[in-house]
Amino acid sequence: METISQKIWRVIDILKWSREYLSQKGIESPQIEVEWLLREILGCSRMDIYLNYDRPLSAAELADFKKMLIERASGKPIQYVVCKTEFMGLEIDVSPEVLIPRSDTEVIVEAIFSILKKRKWNKPRILDIGTGSGAIAVSLAVLIPECSVVACDISPKALEIARENARKHVVSERVDVILQDILKTGKFASAPFQVVVSNPPYVSDKMYDELPAIVKDYEPKVALAPGGDGLRFYHRFAELSDNLLMADGVLAVEIGGNYQEQAVLSIFSENGFDLLTVIKDLQGQSRGVLAEKKHE
């Protein structure tokens, strides 16, 4: 690594050397990740990188790139290295204080968007439980200008990031970010809501031990594993549903995959939800559940 600062390095040199370096460190997509780091350092698009492949990096740019490259090579997720990711086409700030939003979760947002468009509720109110970075809350507020969102979490540091993401995408006036532990209190001043959504901690203790190091060693355990069988939050949502949801409201939750589908469906069914829909992700895995109660 020392030689990286002992010569003039052009964009093309950085691409070639760093791609091989990350590959040797076991990074699965080294080309894409080096491009991402360069885009961040140079403040340019992917196309610009290749249009200006002969451009030399300044000493400051090279030093910043080297720092990021070493962090990524150590195993730190690239989203934490660059302090951002993309979700629903939006740039979302992240830090090790919050779970990295995954593209799989986008199917939950898309399902809610579709429901709201069909129901045509007047100024729908949405509750996002365990908001983390605010990715779900902010993207829904951007997609549905007439809605308002209450976004709660138990982590003050996570809420700082959620507020910043709401500011970044100019939805702060419609996204109310609050500190609340749903396991301790289920009371919200603006309840009931048309939609309650959550990507809760759902990894069981057994499965947590088997998570890859890039997840287990860097992402907050509190956002991943609630303890025991991983179903604690689904039981709590079912328990609170009559107070949180409008009569014709929808509960939308992410789940861990096919293995968790029947357990979550059973919890909701046993608590009066009789309209249950499973949402599949792009890999065909069961990724979410929509739950409603019939009302005459």
Give an account of the 3D structure:
This protein has a seven-stranded mixed beta sheet with strand order 5-4-3-6-7-9-8, with helices on both faces. A two-stranded antiparallel ribbon has the order 1-2. The chain has helices at residues 11-24, 30-42, 46-51, 59-73, 78-82, 106-119, 135-143, 156-168, 205-209, 213-216, 232-244, 258-270; strands at residues 84-87, 90-93, 125-129, 148-153, 175-179, 193-198, 245-254, 275-280, 286-292. The protein is 42% helix and 18% strand. It folds into two domains: 2-75, Helicase, Ruva Protein, domain 3 (Orthogonal Bundle); 98-292, Vaccinia Virus protein VP39 (Rossmann fold). It is of the alpha/beta class. α8 (156-168) links the parallel β4 and β5 (175-179). The model has no long low-confidence stretch (mean pLDDT 95).
What is the typical, i.e. mean, pLDDT?
Answer: 95
Shape-level CATH architecture of the largest domain: 3-Layer(aba) Sandwich
Topology pattern, helix = H, strand = E: HHHHHEEHEHEHEEHHHEHEE
Strand order of the largest sheet: 5-4-3-6-7-9-8
